[in-house]
Amino acid sequence: MQTKAVSTEASHSLLSRLRETVRLQRSKTPPPVWMTALEQGTDAGFFGPGSAVWTVNGASPTMIAGIRALLLQTLHPGAMAGVHDHSRYRADPMGRLDGTVRWVMTTTFGDTEAATAGSNFVHRLHTRVNGHYTDAGGTQKKYSAHDAELLRWVHDAFTEAFLGAHLIWGGPIPGGPDQYVREWAQSGVLMGVDNPPKSVAELREQMADFSVDFKPDERVAEAVRFLRSPGLPKNLRMIYRLLFAGAVSSLTPEQRRLLSLRRPPWPAITANRLLFGLVNLLLGPVSPSELAARSRVDKLRDPLATA
User: Fold this and answer.
1) Which sequence spans correspond to the domains of the chain?
2) Whole-prediction pTM value?
3) Which end of the chain has fewer CB atoms within 10 angstroms, the N or the C?
């Protein structure tokens, strides 16, 4: 999505891309301030053009990756408790999504100052997120959004989901999958993650270590029911069902078992591949966030070109 009154607050989510496309085509509303701010800055950011992170986080498969990440994150009872007790996802799912997307896009495409400020803002929001939960062994534990292990879990689940979706539906990654994990570790550092994985092997090892903590209880079932049908406008429901089916199909059999989900009997992966091709054809393969970032980088390379 790149020109002619087509803008979006969430270019890595088809749900948000379509919602914003329809809204802006009708109202000609300008893009949000945070997106236009990506055109400003003093450097290329933590990643930059040609990086693995720009390639993965700006591509169409992230339209499904966000759903996959949320499904995975529910399996840890500490993370699920924080979402259940403090998140506004049930009352305002689109607002919650847009907030997450803003952080992802700013971290990915903003300059280093903007990416750091965005992460610090999320840190401040998380200060009040704490409470108690019962772990998989029945022990009562305290949780905090700043807990080192919970931060690592959220980062690892996000990384696994976005990389996994791209490997199914995306194109080549500069430097390969290991390069994406290694680069995106910087986002974990910004969020306070201690020792984020630097390779696919480390990521898989950490995910396996977390599996002993998984607790697929009623809270998880409630979150899965919501993610299956989050009460979207009618014009988005069919598309979302297709995306959700793709997310479920992309999970491993063990992940689906823990989430009590079944792989659709129809070819959801192929159907989403066709959908992504159509979206890229109609809206363009480059997100508006990346276009804004490219504009910033071009100006830094040749300030006189835009004078």
Assistant:
1) 14-306
2) 0.86
3) C
